[in-house]
Amino acid sequence: MRALLGLVLLLALLGGARAEPVQRLEHADFVPDGAARPPPDGAAWQAVELPDHWRARKPELTAERGWYRLRFRVPAEPDPLQAVYLPKLIMNAQVWLNGVPIGDGGRFEEPVARNWNRPLLFLVPPGLLRAGANTLYVRLRGHAYTQAALHPVLVGPEAQLREPYERAYFLNITVNQTATLLIGAIGLLALSLWLRRRRDTAYAYFGVSALVWAAQSTNLYVRNVPLPTADWEILSNAGFQVFSGFLLISLLRFVSAGGARLVTLLWAGIVAAPVTLWLVPAAYYLDLTAAWHLFTLLCGVTTLLLLLRAAFRFGNREARWLVAAMGLVLLLAAHDWLIHSQHLWSRHAGHWPFNDVFLLHYSAPLIFLAIGLIMTGRYVRVLNEFEVLNDRLEERVEAKQTELSASYARMRQLETEQAVADERERIYRDLHDDVGAKLLTLVYRSATPADADLARSALQDLRDVVSRTAAESYELEEVVADWRAECEKRLADAGIAVDWCQDDDLDTLRLSRQQALDLGRILREAVSNVIRHAGASRVAVDLVRRDGRLSLTVRDDGCGCAGPGARRPGRGVHNMEARAARLGGSLRRDSLAAGGCAVAVEVPL
Questions:
Q1: Could you tell me which residues are beta bridge partners of residue 600?
Q2: Which of 155, 298, 329, 377 fits a 20 to 30 Å CA distance from 371?
Q3: pLDDT in tens, 332-347
Q4: 168 pairs with which residues across the strands?
Q5: Quick check: pTM over 0.85?
Q6: What is the C-alpha to C-alpha distance for residues 328 and 525, in angstroms, rounded to an integer?
């Protein structure tokens, strides 16, 4: 058992000896010096702690170049493959180990290589790192328009440093390169939508904002730029102000959140920021950028308040997406502003505790994603509405098609009816001209009054048939006038007095062609019976409208329907009953108590 424990302990010790720790170098000496080689030990080295921000530590420092000396010890013979890892620096660096250069980040002269957001990993040549004391020199290149800084340096086996280096490279470089492409594509999409709908200016502002951000975000990963550092810094910071202004305007427009004064202020910032950043002296450049970024941060807070009002007071659901995204964006923006402006406050409040890692650019895809969700939601909603409208349109078209088919069928029917009516009219005209003339001759050549009356009745029937074929319906008042004129003339010729009584509101009624013909013939037959058989001296005709029905009554003072001299109902009476039944009504013949007969017909209107 003791032997087994000893073996385990030995293996653990051997494994621990092989697992060389990574050394984190946080103590250094610094000297401002523009030499291309490390200064001698007798130079004016000053002890500093890493991370070291030149402006925060010593605001009066105007040098753009300096050297760091970091001393460390390696307790045993190191692994053959060692590396030096610089996780963060501003702006460029060259590394020397034990008096030998092992690598750099690019150009030290204008335009200076930009490694401010890029981790650097340098392999140590075999045998250069020795057991015992070692000295690492870092040559740092800054600029008046930047905040020169060096963070703790890590030295150790390459296998252990490779993973954090690649992780940092992925987060700082690869992620931002991918975001640039995606947001640039979103910007082009938004502008294409605006070109198709010019009144939706929110898409235009959003598209411009996305494209400006895509261009400005290259500052996060482009190492070699075509412009001097000062011009590039001005362009980059001015681009941030322009991007932010257009983005905030687009957010307000997307959800109609108001803020007209804020929009005016943002426009002023979009115009004034590039001009002032270009004109300000180098000594005040970083102070002015901090002021402009604070201005943008405050405008963002105001925008968030307007979005909150639109989301919860006015119930705008789209604004709620933007509220969530803007809340996180503003937190990260405040974090980045504190890092960017720490040369103004860190001398009094100490170093920012949450590391010097800028985070705002990671939130840009979030806000663009929120707007993308809004655009997608609007597209889906409009598509659904379009489909509903399309279905309704199809239903309407089908209904109109059915209606048109019915109209065409009706037109064909009317054409057929018109042709029949024209032919009937021609026949009736011929009858009137031929038969009518003969009946008129019979009227004047009749030997007896009864024959003359019969001829007149036949002639009147013919005239009614001819005159009542042209139209489908007639005004009752006009028809009644013809009835009255005929009755008064026939009864007057027979020496019988007439009392005609009718309601005053008959002018609003209309009779169909069949109703006019049948009622007229019933009245004519009733008058004919009075003239021929009743032996009456007076006739009363009543025309009354009640309860949606028309009542026509003919009363005489003759011998009555069943009295002495009265005849049994003949074909004429049966014809009257048949005509009344055809109109949906009824006919009644009654003898009056005072003598005489009453014929009453009642039909629905």
A1: 553, 588
A2: 298
A3: 888 888 888 777 766 5
A4: none
A5: no
A6: 100
